[in-house]
Amino acid sequence: MNKQRYIMVIDEGTTSARAIVFNHQGNIVSMSQKSIKQYFPHPGWVEQDPVEIWKDVESALIEALIKKNIEPYQIQSLGIANQRETAVVWNKDTGKPICKAIVWQSKQTSKISDQIKEAGYSKMIHHKTGLIIDSYFSATKLKWILDHVPNAREDAEAGKLLFGTVDTWLLWNLTGGKVFATDYSNASRTMMFNIHTLKWDPQILRLLKIPSQMLPKVYPSDHLYGHTGDYTFEGLKIPITGIMGDQQASLFGQLALSPGMVKNTYGTGAFIMMNTGEKPILSDNGLITTIAYGFDGKVNYALEGSIFVAGSAIQWLKDGMRIINDPGESEVMAREAPNHCGVYVVPAFSGLGAPYWNQQTRGAVFGLTRGTTREEFVKATLNSLAYQTKDVLRTMQKDTHIDLKNLNVDGGATKNDYLMQFQADLLGIPIHRAVVSEVTALGIAYLSGLASGYWKDLDEVKRCGEKRDEFKPKMSVKERNHYYLGWLNAVKAAQVFKGIKY
Ligand SMILES: Nc1ncnc2c1ncn2[C@@H]1O[C@H](COP(=O)(O)OP(=O)(O)O)[C@@H](O)[C@H]1O
Ligand SMILES: O=P(O)(O)OC[C@H](O)CO
């Protein structure tokens, strides 16, 4: 009998759900991935079907085991990392969602956010939650559901409905409806959670008219949340010992666990996080303060710059513009374009996130000439990921006065060597790319495995993840500043443009 034991994780991202099995060396033993269907019912709205999400996760879990003949009893514990902020509301008795999930990218609650801002609550909300009022966070999405779905408010007040981010929804399903909980990192993305008291904030709940009984219990990230139920894994009770939002999980996977350490994950969006230790630092310059994780009896905070469109801009080149056939082709084309062609793409498809926080801005292209080619367009789109990253890192430096020595990176778009080199050139510091491609999954595996005793301590974990590729800056300071100035002008101009309302 094969007695080897593993850690299994769910990485439920915006575009795909993955189930991954890790061994003691932190290597991937088996993996299964399912695409998550996206719904765009109106311009700017993004929805997903919670039942589809659960079914995709469930089949990925089963497939990952079957692929390598792994028996459920070989799984020491399970961890969940998830796309954050996305709001799910379901009926407690039937377990059925009352509507589609409103995805973090969706702009359908911009008006509600503007109203809260105009009513003068920005400071209070920033101080309590660390966040900037924006439709990105779950609170306005939940309010929208309660205000628009027939009978939702009455049912919520009667205690019939439950709200959760995707982790909570998956945990509920994995445990056969027995456990209704979330972790600090996910709760801190809802704009309803007080990051100082570590409780749902009654003043914010009153303001948004959200019944507190529909909110999950909140625990540290390395808590024993429960066990898989009778439904999944043929009655085998696998302990679920870790939950973190995916960006926090990648911070953990990068082992950026000391104050001042920074990572950037280039997935659908790009999310830059600096670990600030046990002290929350409030930004004066448009970054958000968030809980990195509750681990080993302590709570760690982080400063975050959230970029809404990163890899999805490359997806847009493929699906929307049809200029490339697959994301990998963007690298080939960028290398064929001249050095710098003066074209700037500002991919503000769903407004601008950090540090601008402008919900109304939409995408723009500048610097076109009669001679502009497809290659230049693709290159400018890729460059926008690097420019947006620089915007955030400059702001982090302003807020913390910490000079970065290098940047740890991961996520789908970091496969692109052209982009990595341009990022190093633009920042003037080396880029360290994780060799393990699934850093988010690895981070939640570490956390879950530490909680279940699979790894003894952090030192043991640190031995797993030290290999990185390095990209050193080569560009002159003059050139770097010249290109970046062009970007700053482009972002400014994009924000001035007032299009038609739809
Ligand atoms: N070679 C590449 N160059 C640029 N972008 C890429 C490349 N390969 C993948 N991507 C982008 O990476 C994203 C997927 O990354 P991933 O980390 O899986 O995202 P998520 O977790 O948000 O679903 C896609 O948006 C895709 O366009
Ligand atoms: O799906 P990802 O990996 O791009 O992550 C989405 C973020 O969690 C949104 O805040």
UniProtKB/TrEMBL annotation:
GO terms for cellular component: cytosol. The keyword ATP-binding applies. Its EC number is 2.7.1.30. Residues 263-451 form the Carbohydrate kinase FGGY C-terminal domain. Sn-glycerol 3-phosphate binds at T14, R84, E85, Y136, D246. Glycerol binds at R84, E85, Y136, D246, Q247. Residues 6-253 form the Carbohydrate kinase FGGY N-terminal domain. It catalyses: glycerol + ATP = sn-glycerol 3-phosphate + ADP + H(+). InterPro entries: ATPase_NBD (IPR043129), Carb_kinase_FGGY (IPR000577), Carb_kinase_FGGY_CS (IPR018483), FGGY_C (IPR018485), FGGY_N (IPR018484), Glycerol_kin (IPR005999). Pathway: Polyol metabolism; glycerol degradation via glycerol kinase pathway; sn-glycerol 3-phosphate from glycerol: step 1/1. Homotetramer and homodimer (in equilibrium). NCBIfam families: glycerol_kin, PRK00047.1. This is Glycerol kinase.
